[in-house]
């Protein structure tokens, strides 16, 4: 899919909240949670007060329609704000989502690759949390993320410290 990748702007706020909701993995056949889930502190922390010094993110925009189709961002969540993918106080957590109709077309790969290239000069490593059943797990493995633990029913993955080259298998 032909898309442009650009930095997140304040005008993207509504879309980012939609992407945060889309980032919640829901297995096939399971009813998605109410959008009120975004009000829970453990979810809100991934976007609330966006634009802090350690925040970094990008939006994918369809090059034909100019509509946003995906987003990727990272935040340094520490102290009482630790997220699901917390590893340590120096490792920001990553969130990525693509609108359903654009999934499976390389948008997530392009977004993540762009973020990884940009972030490697700022952070020695990145982390994330993912369900073991989420198809995105293959993408994370391919881009060099490795499992470093688990939290609840999710895997905690980390890429670093030297931002290893993506695996080809």
At the first level of CATH, the class is Alpha Beta
Low-confidence stretches: 163-169
Instruction: Count up the domains.
Output: 1
Measured between the Cα atoms of the first and last residue, the distance is: 23 Å
Brief rundown of the structure:
With 169 residues, the chain is of the alpha+beta class. It is built from 4 helices and 7 strands; from the N terminus they run E-H-H-E-E-E-H-E-H-E-E.
Descriptive report:
- The chain has 169 residues and is of the alpha+beta class.
- It has one domain: Gcn5-related N-acetyltransferase (GNAT) (Aminopeptidase, 3-Layer(aba) Sandwich), CATH 3.40.630.
- The chain is 20% helix and 25% strand.
- It is built from four helices and seven strands.
- It has helices spanning 13-22, 41-44, 107-119, 136-142, and strands spanning 3-7, 56-62, 68-75, 93-98, 126-130, 146-151, 154-159.
- The strands form two sheets. A four-stranded antiparallel sheet has the order 1-2-3-4, sandwiched between helices. A three-stranded antiparallel sheet has the order 5-7-6, covered by helices on one side.
- The model is unreliable at 163-169 (pLDDT under 50).
Task: Give a quick set of tags describing it.
4 helices; 25% strand; 20% helix; 169 residues; Aminopeptidase; four-stranded antiparallel β-sheet; alpha+beta
